[in-house]
Amino acid sequence: MTTELTMTENLSSASKGSRVEFALHLFRGRWLSLFASFTIMAGVGGTYIFGIYSKEIKASLGYDQSTLNLIGFFKDLGSNVGIFSGLIAEVTPTWFLLIIGSSLNFVGYFVIWLAVTGKIAKPKVWQMCTYMCIAANSLNFANTGVLVTCVKNFPENRGVLLGLLKGFAGLSGAIMTQIYLALYGNDPQSLIFLIAWLPAAISMAFVYTIRTISAGRQPNEVRVLYQFLYVSIVLALFLMAMTITQKLVTFPPVAYDASATIVCGLLFFPLFIVFREELFLWNQKKIPTNDVRIEIPALSTTRSEEVPRTSCFSEICNKPPRGEDYTILQALFSVDMLILLISTACGIGSNLTAIDNLGQIGESLGYPMKNVNSFVSLVSIWNYFGRIFAGLISEKLLVKYKFPRPLMTTLFLFLSCVGHLLIAFPVPGSVYVASVIIGFSFGAQFPLLNAIISEIFGLKHYATLFNVGQLASPVGSYLLNVRITGVLYDHEALKDLSRKNMHRSSGGELTCIGAHCYRQSFIILAAAACFGAFASFILVLRTREFYKGDIYKKFREETEANEG
């Protein structure tokens, strides 16, 4: 009897120990790290819903459209100048990046909320621009920490992976809108407070989960990524259904609560996939207790070979073939990077301008605030579909037909021209269609840009280089949004006042009503997007031979060597 009790206790103790070991295995696994990455990207929507709360900033602080567009430019500047996060990522672990990002997010948006609610004295314009830039720059730290880590963990499926990660970021605006409506109702001031604390809390919750994990390629890796994709598609379809329904029907508070609960449930559903996959790997890797594990140290050469020193100029001129690891200077001074920057400035810059002005576009065309929220949500949802489509379809076309990614970028830039023209020459309902087209083409450009940079310039300095690629976005946004769109809008508004023999009151906001308010500026945006498409097509011609080859051969050989 005593022996049986002892055996039962030993089995129970072993089972308990096994559960603890599995919990540690789960926490250290690639799949939980990937789930945490999706969740963080789903919370970065503060910059994407600027169109909802920008009207509140303009009204409460008495700004004209040029001033508001200047603040919008600093938002774009902060969210795209990721060179600092990239350089910091070269020498620090991922958790450090996430802590910096969450701190910047909270401080920036919290001070903006204090200013809008009148809890502090009205800040000067340059101070508001600084607060917005700080808040938006937090996105780069989350982006760099998540994207670089995931691409290194899943190098052979980067197209699908970047599409998924950027897809969740695209959905984040619609996700935040549903949570905001459930918690605070239709109160734009409280929305600013929400985007101050919620993304920071999510990043801190997963701060030690996201890291580079050395593991061999899993045979069913693509299938699992597609399962994550299916869940995200269901989430996107639900958000779109809620957006349309909330436009047509007045929701009571309990309906908003139910909608937000379902959204959160779908966000956390992938945890079941993570648990299943990690349990499968755990059962495969279990080793009997009497086995001895032998660790083989990494081989080292008996003598170090001296690397010949070369001048900085010589290093820049002697570039490796496309697909090999470029140094930062070699990539920065390459023609391919210059073309990428031009197409990004024109393409993403024009789309950012359209998205930032959605609130005022709706107002000028006579849409109520509820419809303006629908525009922003539609952009967010179709932003997701664009990112998913570009990531998955470009990967399939590349692998199966050697279809170059730069050519797909060219096609999406031509598509965005159509969206801009629908706003320049509006007809009833055209803004809804334009929101879908602009959101779709805007979303598609990000995973394509990130994938092209990783394929042409290698992964060694990817943390810095993909942030360099995004530097062109705020340049395009400043020229097209601040220097053109805002100025032309204010010019039309002042003309309206003069026709009515009225003058703008001191400190009052400047509003333009009518289809003429944005006509000239959006014709210019359409022309800029077309110019970016032609620039992208030049890159297609330059890289056509490179994309005809097997660009993933190098990573397959490295994986096979590591497993061997």
UniProtKB/TrEMBL annotation:
<dbReference type="InterPro" id="IPR056555">
    <property type="entry name" value="NFD4_C"/>
</dbReference>
<feature type="transmembrane region" description="Helical">
    <location>
        <begin position="431"/>
        <end position="453"/>
    </location>
</feature>
<dbReference type="Pfam" id="PF23262">
    <property type="entry name" value="NFD4_C"/>
</dbReference>
<feature type="transmembrane region" description="Helical">
    <location>
        <begin position="331"/>
        <end position="355"/>
    </location>
</feature>
<dbReference type="InterPro" id="IPR010658">
    <property type="entry name" value="Nodulin-like"/>
</dbReference>
<feature type="transmembrane region" description="Helical">
    <location>
        <begin position="522"/>
        <end position="541"/>
    </location>
</feature>
<dbReference type="InterPro" id="IPR036259">
    <property type="entry name" value="MFS_trans_sf"/>
</dbReference>
<keyword id="KW-0812">Transmembrane</keyword>
<dbReference type="Pfam" id="PF06813">
    <property type="entry name" value="Nodulin-like"/>
</dbReference>
<feature type="transmembrane region" description="Helical">
    <location>
        <begin position="406"/>
        <end position="425"/>
    </location>
</feature>
<feature type="transmembrane region" description="Helical">
    <location>
        <begin position="95"/>
        <end position="116"/>
    </location>
</feature>
<feature type="transmembrane region" description="Helical">
    <location>
        <begin position="222"/>
        <end position="242"/>
    </location>
</feature>
<feature type="transmembrane region" description="Helical">
    <location>
        <begin position="190"/>
        <end position="210"/>
    </location>
</feature>
<feature type="transmembrane region" description="Helical">
    <location>
        <begin position="254"/>
        <end position="275"/>
    </location>
</feature>
<protein>
    <submittedName>
        <fullName>Actin-related protein 2/3 complex subunit 1B</fullName>
    </submittedName>
</protein>
<feature type="transmembrane region" description="Helical">
    <location>
        <begin position="161"/>
        <end position="184"/>
    </location>
</feature>
<keyword id="KW-0472">Membrane</keyword>
<feature type="transmembrane region" description="Helical">
    <location>
        <begin position="375"/>
        <end position="394"/>
    </location>
</feature>
<feature type="transmembrane region" description="Helical">
    <location>
        <begin position="31"/>
        <end position="54"/>
    </location>
</feature>
<feature type="domain" description="Nodulin-like">
    <location>
        <begin position="30"/>
        <end position="275"/>
    </location>
</feature>
<feature type="domain" description="NFD4 C-terminal">
    <location>
        <begin position="347"/>
        <end position="547"/>
    </location>
</feature>
<keyword id="KW-1133">Transmembrane helix</keyword>
<comment type="similarity">
    <text>Belongs to the major facilitator superfamily. Phosphate:H(+) symporter (TC 2.A.1.9) family.</text>
</comment>
<dbReference type="GO" id="GO:0016020">
    <property type="term" value="C:membrane"/>
</dbReference>
